[in-house]
Amino acid sequence: MKANNELLIDDSSSFHKIVTEKSIDIKNVTVSFKSKGKGVFTAVKDINLEIGKGEIVSIIGHSGCGKSTLMNTISGMVSPSSGEVIANNKVVTGPGPDRGIVFQNYSLLPWLTVYKNVFEAVDSVLPHLSKAEKIELVEKNLNMVNLWEHKDKLPSQLSGGMKQRVAIARAFSINPSILLLDEPFGALDALTKGSMHIELLKLWNLDNRNKTIVMVTHDIEEAIFLSDRVVVMNNGPAATIKEIVDIPLARPRNKKDIIHLPEYIEVHDRLLNLLFDKFSIED
Amino acid sequence: MKNILSKYSPAGTLYFIGSMLILLAIWQLVTFVTKAEIPGPLATWAVFSEMLADPFYDYGPNDKGIGIQLWSSLKRVFIGFSLGSLVAIPLGLIMGSSKIGMKLLNPIVQILRPVSPLAWFPLGLLAFKASDQATIFIIMITSLWPTLINTAFGVSTIPADHKNVGKAFGFSRWKYITKILIPFSLPHIITGLRLSIGIAWVVIVAGEMLSGGVGIGFFVWDSWNGLSLEKILSAILIIGIVGLLFDKIFNVLQKTFSYESK
Fold it and tell me: Where in or outside the cell is it found (chain B) (predicted)?
């Protein structure tokens, strides 16, 4: 991954190096919403961000800083008020099957079984496949997250971690080149969260690290463990990118071991300072 | 099916019996106060059991068994209610899913909804030139509103999370309707249908009193003309019990189709 990283923009120099395969390109994106009675609310302003193929990038910031909004411009759920987002060399005009989304609150359809929840997504995105091929795809992806034996359960019968695994299987099953995760593990307990991180990296590895993953989070350890780069946002409104931090840790990373590495401690401190500079003791 | 069975708990049955005893006591009291001008439960039971002994006799147009009367009312209610629902559900879907549809249709609904079935009757007669169809017409037009309003409400409250699933995975319009819109709205639609069938059953009696012919409503009116209060009270009991059964059926449907209770 290190080699791949060097192809990307080096933020400290801020000169554009040649990027061989760009996955996402956010150009001068500003998102404003009309809010009732209060005129216009600007969530994020003048965002520029390039993400390479196979990269894992976390967007981190305080609540309400517009990180979800920024990610929704990639998914196409939110249109930028100005600027544009390019994903897989195409301008994003709406949601598309090349970008899989895992929502914050899983967003499984409660009246469909685990199997059906994944199947309907496959059926919708890949209509040209035969029924047998679709079923095979659903089975493969549910097996991948170890939920095939729970395929006939309804979401209400599953734990939070299981629901999240269904949501991930659903996103993976349409084989998107970009995976967008909106605070995917926020509602999980620490133990489940830890195993989900490993699951996610396993899936990414199985796919030869070809999928680009963009994740919104407010968990520093999670961001460091998973990402190649961490995008730190300023507080909103009109949030901008404060800094992009490279994570100089070789993969595969071992959660227990990396926390003792000087690089880890340094990057952890750096992120902590970026996020909490306002609340230092001197204030 | 668990839900239906659990209804028949011993305690529930005891409460039901208690409730019926209270009703009989009040009835008996009324009979006592009116000096038996309104027949009591026992006198009514004598006539009622006689009616039930041969419910399907047919001695010409003005003398038919209670079973025949009830059956023809049920048919009318079923036709009127079905036609009403066929109009109400699609319109409700449109109103609920489009703001323009809601703004255009809602005032019409609010104006027509409170109109009495009796006021519609002459229009029905004029349009169909037959009292039977006119009765079906008034059932249709007075019973469709709860279904319409509940359907529209159900559709308009689909959570953004569910809609986003459809957007994110590029659901076709058809898939959105069948996998998200209908499943989410179905419990609301059934609630609407439950209220609608209740109204249809209330309206049928009034409608048949006006239209004459055969039916439980006509039977009440005919019994009044024949001054048989026992028959009227028997008919009231039958109307009440059938209404209760309708409600129970829709209650079961509601539980079967609500995804939350599973």
Answer: Cell inner membrane; Cell membrane
The structure's pTM equals 0.78
Return contacts of B32-41, CB within 8 angstroms, 24+ apart. B38/B229, B38/B233, B39/B229, B39/B230, B39/B233
Structural domains in chain B (count): 2
Give residue for tokens 């230092």: A280
Domain A54-68+93-276 sits in CATH 3.40.1190.10: no
Do B122 and B202 belong together in one domain?
A: yes
- Please answer yes or no on whether B165 and A77 come within 8 Å at the CB atom: no
Residues 6 or more apart in contact with residue B107 via CB below 8 angstroms: none
Same domain, B23 and B58: no
pLDDT tens-digit series, residues B29-72 = 999 999 888 899 988 998 888 888 888 888 877 778 888 889 99
A128/B contact by beta carbon, under 8 A: no
Q: Which domain holds residue B89?
A: 39-261
Please judge whether B168 and A123 are an interchain contact, meaning their C-beta atoms are less than 8 angstroms apart. Answer: no
ipTM value greater than 0.90: no
Using the Cβ of B2 and the Cβ atoms of chain A, whether some distance falls under 8 Å is answered with no
Q: Quote the minimal CA–CA distance from A125 to chain B in Å.
A: 6
B183 to chain A: nearest residue by CA? A111
* Domain residue limits, chain A: 54-68+93-276
